[in-house]
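Fold this sequence, please.
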Amino acid sequence: MAKSEEQFKMIRDQRYEEISHAALKIFARKGFAGTKISDITSSINLSHGLLYHYFKSKEEIYVAIIMNILDQFKQAVTEAEDQKGTPYDKLNWFSALTFSGSPEVALDRHILINEALQADFLSEEIKQNIRQEYADSLKVLSRIISAGQRDGIFIEGDAMELAAYYLSFSQGLTLWNAKGLYHINVTVESVIRPLLANP
């Protein structure tokens, strides 16, 4: 690839990320129905015409953001499973990654996923894809937990249920802190402890 082509692709990718980041925040605060294309373009000083070079419609932006969130989630849990060490080490790595991000961005992502699953404006096929992507990531976490159960590290029980419990607990604490009501000093150890066979 010629240098000018590489530079163009880099600029295009950066602009795509800029649009996506701005749209995520606005969709989370205003909802899909309350968000206008002009809300997104004005927040990053972008013309309507240029935005349509990247996305064909408001719905396409919305769906692209959600699928990107789910893709990042799947990449993170897959990378956790590929880490060296015990199942505890792998879950520890994933937990640390989870808490290293911005609570506000985590809250925005959570709001969007929940809205999408209840949205009348999205097709059932898209909603089913969202559910499937999330379930696939949950299965990876359940494999880590199942391996830990075999090693006597984690408590007995349905590994998928324990994975859902773990995610609900860790995400819930992140979302709680994003509200700014009463800050909880969340540690990796405190989140994993309920799963431990011998805490």
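The chain has a mean pLDDT of 89. The chain has nine helices and no strands.
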